[in-house]
Structures are given as structure tokens and as C-alpha cells.
Design a protein that fits this description.
The structure is a homodimer. By secondary structure, the first copy, chain A, is α/β, with parallel strands linked by helices. The first copy, chain A, contains 14 helices and 13 strands.
Chain lengths: ~425, ~425
């Protein structure tokens, strides 16, 4: 027991072996009706399997960050994994690096890089360089790597492509750190900003100086590119060294996701990541089936619900929920001890954005309290307003892992 | 005001005189339906008085420890008394000692002792010595007291019977302490373990050494016993010196309970304990009536609901709830300012065990908001799923005492 006994210490003390758990996350699941008397995306979907699970299990609404706070993808997932995202803050650069499978070390500062277009005076005219192709991104990253990788004595520069205009920048070497600002002015027509350090430490000052030198040199290297003749760095950060999920909970844990960000957050807490062919829910479930015997805890991430919400495409989001419903029997056939279906946050098509609305959540297990199916005038058992009357109530998302472990018989009694 | 202003400081500032409060606890009250479309024990019970109180008062679901955590009896009761059990952790030995009315002092280390049966090689063959009779327990404890009570210079050994195979061991003397492990191997076929100290302090090392010497000598004393020829010590601990309930809340507080554990927890927070003849709810209420004028706050503990849940006896648990319902009019006749009816945790007959499910809770008072009676297809006003839609929502059990005090007019305004 550490000097200050934490919730994680409690979980370390109480975890035991038991049934397998599944955390099925539809990104941006929560929605809103387009008109006051309408239904949400989730309430509109024809999803007999999810509705049955909601009636047999318990439902509620989960709060990813705090009431009223619109979550980013990284912190929203940390919260699902039981890490309070206000306490455990992580730079975007770290998530981006982990998302492409980059093995971030303790001496590394990582940033999310964006290729950009600049006017002759250096002001940014397109923050995404016209969304260049991923092939172009690969070529440009290699060019920068070649030209700048060894520009510092004693410090290594690593540049890796992600997709379209996005790349990862890593500066590796001893004594790096600080609290570093971003170069992106966030609007076009302004010049990029210098990286500054707010920590006031010698490490921060040195790191800011080295990165500013690299940015200047990189812009020289890119000067003759027609579109991507500039770049910006965002979210400069080190791996925060989070407590390890498998160690806290005593579970072999794996993530099944298509998009880099979600693989990245999972790696950050120590989950394995299994790669697979295909991008549809059925491909993810096929991968789940293949690795079922190798793990205790399975995180499955479905991205498109969020993407369609961001696009304002209500109907496409409904159809994606229905596509997930169709694979539910394959998950149940594996006989998990307990299953959670939820989102990381809400992305109502009506708002075309992530939002702060709490997230409909269902917990199914043979040991769950069957919910009162309260329809509140909506004819779906699994829906935002049915969940508002559910047995689990309104709760912080960090409670989900302990809850699902309890239902799967993976927690011992606290105290005599 | 102390350096860190706590919730208890708030209560010290705000408490005032007012109506009397009653906390009626049916141990393990929460349950589950045996089939997904069935009713829980509480929903099944014919309990017109409790249903009426629920309809006139407010209901909700309380979380004893944390969401997903299965509570032990000690911490679950601390939570009802408003002490966060993750913050205030108490050894089983302390609870056991207080439960038999033993006056634990600041120099005492207490343990729960279990008489056990051992093979000739010392391995444990029955961890409960065939559940010997309480008479046998009394004889054996006296034998150990006689033979080992004065075996140390400067330290006193006290051995007291509890019931069946259980006894209390206390080592009393200066400079005892540490973070001590248990001797019980928890499964048969293994030898007992030595007590070890994890604190790394001189006190801990000395205490472990003395207790190991006592255990060895006690096994010699018991060697010729046919069943109870060995023993184990569990939950070695000191009185944690909790803040006093009567002082925090400005109430004369009493506990009415049959079983030692619950008297023990009540004493630990400074409540008086009134002993009485009989073990049924009506005997407890008779005791309540006798001491009504002497106290402001009354904790009444009903054990059998939990026992029947542990036995998997759904019907007997239902009947015990009905027996409690029958005495409700006698409580109301005393005209309490506010009354809470709840459990310390759930013990669903379906699971034959304590469980993590939140606990149905009702708060009745002339100042309470009458609940919307949402039956959710279940025809009981006081039931798990009706409470899930109750006005009090889902809340931590530590809020109950402030809530019931407010309803009884015992808290002043916070701020001007």
C-alpha cells in the first residue's frame, strides 16, 4: 500500500480471476433529437439485440469528464479505462505517436505535426496543406527525416507519417522536458508561433530552443513544395507514465481499433493492440474471436458513429449503430462474464460536434439487475432517455471498469 | 476549524437540536430477481407499511463503498454512519473485539481468532474446527487465558470467546503496532503462516515476534484437544481512533443490534450500545421504546435478511422483510423526526453472497418530498427498481446521516 491509498490501490487489492469482460465503445454514441419531439440517433435505430441486452441488464448515463465538459477523444477514452482525465492529462503528440505504433521512450518529446501551406511571408494560408494525400505525407516525412534526423549532436529527430497532412515529430535525448506551447496559430492569415516553455526549467528552455531550430530548418527543407511548404507542431509532450491497466486490474487486456488515436490511448495504459484487416464492425469482431483465448479484457472501438455525427449525418449514424447491433450475437456467443456497450462521449448529428451530454450506457451480465424499461415516450430500451431512468443512474465513466469487473466476478469483498 | 476543513467539520458547525432520527438497517437488504423477468426479495415482500412510507417519503439507491465494490459488513456500516470506508479502514480484529463488548485500549493489538483442526504435521484440516459449540469455545478460551495470559513480561494476553469457533485475541502493552499479516492459509491442507510485519518499524517487528511466540505456545496448550487442536489469527489491528459520531453530529446516539459485529462498529464511532433480551425485530423495537427518551439518534440492525440471502433462501428473506414491516407502526408511534430504512449492502439470494449492487433506501419524514411512485412493472413502492427512479437518485451512503438530520430539523443553514 502506498503512502496515499488510491482508488487504483483498492483495485490492486481486490482484483481476482473471473469471467472475461468486453467494453464495446461506439465513438460519439450519444445524440440529440433533431426536433424537440423527435428521437435521438440511438432511439431511432432498429437494434433488437441491444434493446434486449438493455432490458436484461442495467443502464445509466455516464459522464466522461465532468458535467458540462465536452470531451476530446483521448481523455474520453482514458475515462472509460478508469483514469480520471482531469488528473491524468496527456499531450496530443503522445497519443499521435502511440497511435502509429511508435514506441515512445522516457527521453522522448512527441508532437502532432501538421503539414501546412504558407504564403511567401510565412503566414499560414492552409493549416492542413489542402489535405494532401497520405502518399504525399509519406514522401514528405521521409524527406524531413533524411534532411534533419541528425541535425543535433546528442539528440535524435524522428519524423513519421500518419495520414493526409498529419505526421509525428519526436525529439529524443537526455534532459528534455518542460511545458511547451504550440506553433499553430489556429487561424489562417497569421504567422506560425514559436514554441515557448512555461515551466521555467532549464530542460524546458533547452527543449524549446532545439524544437524551434528544428522547425526553422524543416521549413527550409520544405520551401520548394507546392502545397506543404510549412508545418506546425501541436501537443508537445512526454509519455506521462500512467499506471498500467493490466497491473491495476490483474487482467490481460487488448484493444481492437481501426484508428491510430484509440490504439494509442490503449497502449498508453498498457493494453496490447491487435491489428487486423478491414475496418467494419464485423472485422473487429472477427479479430475479437481470434484473440478471445489470449486475454481477459477486450476494448472494441467503433469510429464511424462519431464521424457521421461530426458530419451531421443523422441517418448514417443510425445505420452504423444498426451495423453494431448486428454483431452483438457474435460477442454473446463467446460468453463474456460481462459486457458494456457505451460511447466515449456524445456526438449529436444536430450539433455536428462532440458534446458534453452524458453517454447512454448498458451493462449486461447474468449478475446484473434487469432494468425497469422506462421508455419515457420513446420506444427503445437502449436510448438516452431510457438510460436516464436506469438502475445505474448518472455516474462518472471511471466507474465502468470496476462495475463490469464486479459483474464478471473479478473483484473480492472489501473488508470483513 | 482545523487546517483541512472536512465534511465532518461542516457537520460540527451546522448541527443543532431537533427531532429524533432512526436508521433502520436490514442487513443485506438489496437483492436480485431469480429470473430476468422476476421480482427481487424486497419487491416480492408484502409490506404495506414500508410501501406507504416510500410513497409518502423519498427513495433512492445508495452506494456503500464505490460502484462495483462488494462491501464487507464493517466498512458497509461505517459508510451508513457517514465515514467513507476507503478513508477509514479498520481491522477485523478490532471489530470482533468491540463486538463482544471488550474495551479496546490504545495499547492493544486485537485479532479475530479461529479455533482450527490440524493434522499431526500441523497442516490445517478444518479452518473452523468443525464449528465447535459456543460452550466449547468458552472452555477453550478460558484454558488459553489461564495458560498464556501471563506468558510475557510487561505484556498482557487476553483471550475471550465469541461464538462457535471464533474468539478474540488481544495483546496489550507499550510500543505495539505495525502492519501485520494473518496466520490463516485460507485453504485446508496447508500449514498456518507466521505473522509478518510489513511496516518495517521496530514496533511491528516486536509485535510480530511476540504474537508468533504466543501462537506457538497456544498450539502446545491445545495439542490434546480432539477438534480444536490449532488456531489462526486474522485481522490484527489497533483501534483506529475514529472521529466520534456524537461529537460530530451533536446527537446522543445508540445502537440496537443482536450480533456482535454491529455493536462493535457502533461502539467504534462512539455510539452507546443497549443490550436487550430476544433476537427478533419486535424485541429490538421494544428496546427502542424503552430508551427513546435517552437518545437523539437510533441505529437498529436486523441481521437475518443477510443470513437468509447468504443461504440462498429467497422466501425466508422475503418473510424477514415482512416481519420488519410489521413493527414499522411502533416506530412511527414514537414520532421520529425522520426515519431511514435501508441496508448496509445487497445480499441477493440468487448470488448467496454480499454483492456490489446499490441498496434500496427510503427516507420518511413530514419534510420529505413524496416520491413519484414509478413501479417499472413491479408492484412495490419500496423496491430496488422503484428506488432507481426515486427522488434521491443514486448516492453514496455517507450522505444518509446529513440527509436524515436535515429532514429532522437538526442542521442549520450553511452561509448567510
Amino acid at each position: 500500500m502506498s503512502a496515499v491509498f488510491t482508488e487504483f490501490d483498492l483495485m490492486r487489492d481486490l482484483n481476482k480471476t473471473g469471467g472475461k469482460i468486453v467494453l464495446l465503445v461506439m465513438d460519439g454514441l450519444g445524440g440529440l433529437p433533431m426536433t424537440p419531439d423527435g428521437k435521438t440517433e440511438l432511439e431511432s435505430a432498429h437494434k433488437p439485440n441491444l434493446d434486449r441486452l438493455a432490458a436484461e441488464g442495467s443502464t445509466g448515463l455516464s459522464i466522461p469528464i465532468r458535467m458540462g465538459i465536452e470531451p476530446g477523444s483521448g481523455p474520453a477514452h482514458l475515462s472509460l479505462f478508469s483514469y480520471d482525465p482531469v488528473k491524468y492529462q496527456i499531450g496530443r503528440g503522445v497519443l499521435e505517436a502511440l497511435g502509429i505504433g511508435f514506441e515512445l521512450g522516457p527521453n522522448d518529446i512527441a508532437a502532432r505535426g501538421n503539414f501546412a501551406t504558407a504564403a511567401p511571408d510565412g503566414t499560414i494560408t492552409d493549416r492542413r496543406a489542402g489535405r494532401i494525400s497520405t502518399d504525399e505525407c509519406v514522401r514528405l516525412a521521409a524527406k524531413l527525416q533524411q534532411a534533419t534526423g541528425a541535425m543535433f549532436d546528442g539528440y535524435e529527430v524522428i519524423v513519421r507519417p500518419v495520414k493526409e497532412h498529419r505526421f509525428v515529430f519526436v525529439l529524443r535525448g537526455p534532459g528534455l522536458g518542460g511545458d511547451l506551447t504550440e506553433t499553430d496559430p489556429l487561424v489562417t492569415g497569421l504567422p506560425p508561433l514559436p514554441v515557448e516553455d512555461n515551466s521555467g526549467t532549464p530542460e524546458g528552455a533547452k527543449t524549446a530552443r532545439l524544437i524551434n531550430e528544428w522547425v526553422a530548418q524543416a521549413r527550409v527543407v520544405l520551401a520548394d513544395e507546392p502545397k506543404a511548404n510549412s508545418l506546425n507542431l501541436r501537443g508537445l509532450a512526454k509519455d506521462p507514465g500512467l499506471p498500467r491497466f493490466p497491473e491495476i486490474y490483474g487482467m490481460r487486456a487488448v484493444a481492437l481499433a481501426v484508428y491510430p488515436m484509440y490504439k494509442g490511448v490503449a497502449r498508453l495504459v498498457g493494453m496490447d493492440v491487435v491489428n487486423f484487416e478491414g475496418e467494419r464492425p464485423e472485422h473487429e469482431i472477427a479479430a475479437l474471436e481470434r484473440c478471445w483465448n489470449d486475454y481477459d479484457s477486450f476494448f472494441i472501438h467503433v469510429k464511424k458513429t462519431d464521424s457521421y455525427g461530426e458530419d451531421g449525418n443523422f441517418e448514417a449514424k443510425v445505420h452504423e449503430i444498426e451495423a453494431v447491433d448486428a454483431v452483438i450475437p457474435r460477442i454473446l456467443a463467446l460468453q463474456p462474464g460481462a459486457l458494456i456497450v457505451t460511447g466515449d462521449h456524445s456526438t449529436p448529428a444536430k450539433l455536428r460536434s462532440h458534446s458534453w451530454h452524458p453517454v447512454p450506457t448498458l451493462l449486461w451480465s447474468p449478475t446484473a439487475m434487469p432494468d425497469p424499461v422506462r421508455l419515457g415516450g420513446q420506444d427503445a430500451a437502449f436510448g438516452e432517455r431510457a438510460c436516464a431512468g436506469g438502475y445505474l443512474g448518472l455516474f462518472h465513466a471511471t466507474n465502468l471498469i470496476p462495475l463490469v469487473m464486479a459483474h464478471a466476478g473479478r473483484l473480492t469483498r472489501f473488508g470483513a
